[in-house]
Specification:
single chain; 143 residues; mainly alpha; 2 domains
Length: 143
């Protein structure tokens, strides 16, 4: 390419229009040679960019594989978290039910005694229902 640049491209007579007068075939060769010279200049500029692009694409490919692996791990962790949250909600509900219906033995046996000790039971029925029956398991009292 160095010979073409020094010997032909710099020559003022190496012009396709001037050569066309002598021969149309030589005009075609002249245009071809000038195009090859321009291609060489552009190829030297583009070659390092192509190499950098290839390296960047390889790096991107590696990063995308790692990202997909991390996304899969994240999905698994989110599924586990959802299961744990469901278990937590169920345990909260169980605790509420346990607190509502799990009386101590003292409370279970004292409530009927307290109710039977009330004089005029029939007058205090609403009071008993509100204070004892609604707080006790259903099996303890039957009205």
């Amino acid at each position: 390419m160095q010979v073409i640049r020094t010997k032909y491209v710099t020559n003022p007579d190496f012009d396709p229009e001037k050569i066309k007068v002598a021969s149309t075939a030589c005009e075609g060769l002249c245009r071809w040679l000038l195009a090859i010279e321009k291609y060489d200049v552009v190829a030297k500029v583009v070659a390092p960019k192509k190499i950098a692009l290839k390296e960047a694409e390889d790096l991107l490919s590696t990063a995308m594989k790692a990202l997909e692996t991390k996304r899969a791990m994240l999905r698994e962790i989110q599924e586990k978290l959802n299961k744990l949250q469901q278990n937590l909600e169920m345990n909260k509900q169980k605790k509420v039910l346990h607190m509502r219906f799990n009386w101590s033995p003292f409370q279970r046996f004292e409530a009927p005694v307290a109710v039977s000790a009330l004089p005029h039971w029939h007058r205090h029925r609403n009071f008993c229902k509100q204070s004892f029956v609604l707080q006790c398991p259903i099996a303890l009292f039957r009205f």
